[in-house]
Write a structure and sequence with these properties.
mainly alpha; 7 helices; 0% strand; UPF0756_TM; transmembrane helix; membrane; UPF0756 membrane protein CLV97_12040; transmembrane
Length: 152
């Protein structure tokens, strides 16, 4: 399939599915392509995830910078059940991200399925894409569960 046509299809899917993130991302890539700035694709591919995570982290940390989160609220993270579960959730997420990275190193073509699954999740489930590593981590977990079931 022609890459330009594929990007246009993604733009339409994003518009129909009311997902401005998909539409905007595909539009920006199409603009880079049509203005013959494809030489920046490797840099976008290499650093785009880091920049996205940087801005996501900045957005999450704004309440700390503005003082909307007090020292009392921070200490409650270590003394309340929701806080302790949030810490455990963060630990599990980073662990799964690591397993996802290992899986993608062993089987890099899985990224195609992760992207398609993310698009479906955005459009049909109104999800928010936070990164291929978490998707790969969940995939690695599901593969382990299936291997465990099949080996019984």
């Amino acid at each position: 399939m022609n890459p330009d046509l594929f990007l246009v299809i993604l733009i339409v899917i994003g518009l129909v599915g009311r997902s401005p993130i998909i539409s905007t991302a595909a539009s920006l890539l199409l603009i880079l392509k049509l203005t013959h700035l494809e030489r920046y694709f490797p840099a976008v591919e290499r650093r785009g995830l880091e920049l996205g995570l940087l801005f996501l982290t900045i957005a999450v940390l704004v309440p700390f910078a503005t003082g909307r989160i007090s020292v009392k609220e921070i200490t409650s993270m270590f003394t309340s059940l929701p806080g302790i579960l949030a810490i455990i959730g963060g630990m599990l997420a980073t662990y799964m991200n690591g397993k996802g990275l290992d899986l993608l190193k062993m089987d890099p073509q899985l990224i195609i399925g992760l992207v398609i699954g993310s698009i479906i999740g955005i459009v049909m489930l109104r999800g928010i894409p936070v990164g291929p590593l978490m998707a790969a981590g969940i995939t690695a977990f599901l593969l382990k569960v299936l291997n465990w079931i099949w080996s019984r």
